[in-house]
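Please go through this protein, sequence plus structure tokens, and consider how the sequence yields the tokens. Keep your notes short.
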Amino acid sequence: MNLAVATLNPSDSPQPLYAQIRDQLRRQILEGGYSAYQQLPSEKSLMGAFGVSRITVRQALSDLHSEGLVFSAQGKGTYVSRPKAVQNIQRLQGFGEAMAAQGYAASARLLGFQERRPPRAVSEALGLATGEEVIEVTRVRYLNQQAVCVESSYFPLTIGRRLFGLDLSGDIFPLLENRLGIALGAADIGLESVRCDEAAQRHLSLGADEPILRVERLTHDRNGRPIDFEYLRFRGDSFKYQFRVERK
């Protein structure tokens, strides 16, 4: 049983017992104590380990279900879900910034950094002249050490060249702001489901015909100048954008 149990505080803690158990299990899941699709200890084992009733254990597991951290297979038990990123796009954030707020560890691995002629859609989005080149940065993004996204970012040469040699294992937005002194403004975002491309197949362990969520994001600086165009290809089971809309 992969379970490190801390002492519960039935009287000293303001939290009820089920919440203390929930928080301990959540912490172990988010810190990698359990891998995706690994089975959690049975309800009986949890009852014995924590010295609580079945109702208390079930309430803790119910909360983890609601958070999307675990799922149940009828007659077989409770299993850890694959990490799923949920990003609220009411404000402009990088992937790592959004995930850190939820307790996840996000990182990136650089696949390529090159100067090239961009696809037409990229050139038009960035407002470039015909034949003008860009810097393309390609990375794999990880959530709790699991690959969830292949990211291709395109920058005008005046911006992209200044990223060369910087640490690109995290979000690029803070680098643009803090190292390059570019004040970020707003972003235009588009979502669509597309067939898995070769890079996503290889780095996200997907089949050729599996659908992925492709996000197109064009980021502007505070003066409205386009500075970064991105294609973000997410595993369909690993990411969700969350909106809030109001009827005016």
Observations:
- Residues 17-80 form a domain with the Arc Repressor Mutant, subunit A fold (CATH 1.10.10.10).
- The longest helix spans residues 17-30.
- The longest strand covers residues 184-195.
- Strands lie at 70-73, 77-80, 85-88, 106-116, 134-143, 146-156, 184-195, 211-221, 226-235, 239-242.
